[in-house]
Amino acid sequence: MAAEVDNSRYFVREIEKNDGCVLRLKQSYIGDVGCVVWDAAIVLAKYLETKEFYDPPSGVNAWCGRTAVELGAGTGVVGLMAATLGAQVIVTDLEDLQTLLNTNIQENQSLIKSGSISAKVLKWGEDVSELLPPPHYILMADCIYYEQSIGPLVETLKQLSGPETSIICCYEQRTEGVNPEVERKFFELLNRHFSCEKIPSDKQDPEFSSPDIHILHIRRKD
User: Fold this and answer.
1) In whole angstroms, what is the distance from residue 149 CA to residue 10 CA?
2) How does residue 29 score in pLDDT terms, banded at 50, 70 and 90?
3) Residues near 48 by Cβ (< 8 Å), separated by ≥ 6?
């Protein structure tokens, strides 16, 4: 059950699914980066329902019965999309994002039929045993921004993923300030343990894509 919330603190972002249903995401006027729906999260959420993963007329549903963990979930839009498509999802973020996550889960529960979703606290680099065994998918959108967090993030990916886990990462490439250096260090560290494949724009949602937002499929090397 979501904690009691003050609706005056929130404004709503609506994301229409391909079936016409609408995800309603509350965002907070006050808070850190996790309190709003970032563009990369929308691009990733819409990518999850492209034909590669989800095409009911052809009998394709890569999410049905699959497990997924979202890292740095923020408002929970990516995990919620996966749950509405049939995945068994755990969305994770820091303690202070749990009220917002649970509020959005409750707000969109009626759209979740065969899937499921719950929220858990996870600080990158710390124990992930509650999230094991390794999920089929790890989802992450715009998680590459603080230099001090990239080491713990890669450590969490190592601990949480198995040989069959598909990590889908979406991030907005930013050219100002320290962002290019943070991205360089993240991928240098990531490439020691994982292989990355960039998804071309023609495989993404035709409306919700952008030249500066990239989607990667990532897998363990071992």
Assistant:
1) 27
2) low
3) 54, 63, 78, 81, 82, 85, 139, 168
CA 126 to each of CA 56, 121, 172: distance values in angstroms, whole numbers, following the listed order = 38, 10, 26
Cross-strand pairs, 138:
69, 167
Rama region for 206: left / alpha / beta (φ>0; ψ in -120 to 50; rest): alpha
Q: Which tokens belong to 204?
A: 């993404």
On whether the CB atoms of residues 151 and 189 are closer than 8 A, the answer is: yes
In angstroms, how far apart are the furthest CA atoms of the chain? 49
CA separation, residue 71 to residues 20, 51, 53 (Å) = 27, 24, 20
Give the residue-averaged pLDDT of 72-89: 97
Residue with tokens 């049939």: 86
Judge contact between 203 and 50, C-beta under 8 A: yes
Whether the model clears a pTM of 0.90, i.e. scores above it, the answer is yes
Whether the bond into 133 is cis, omega within 30 of 0: yes
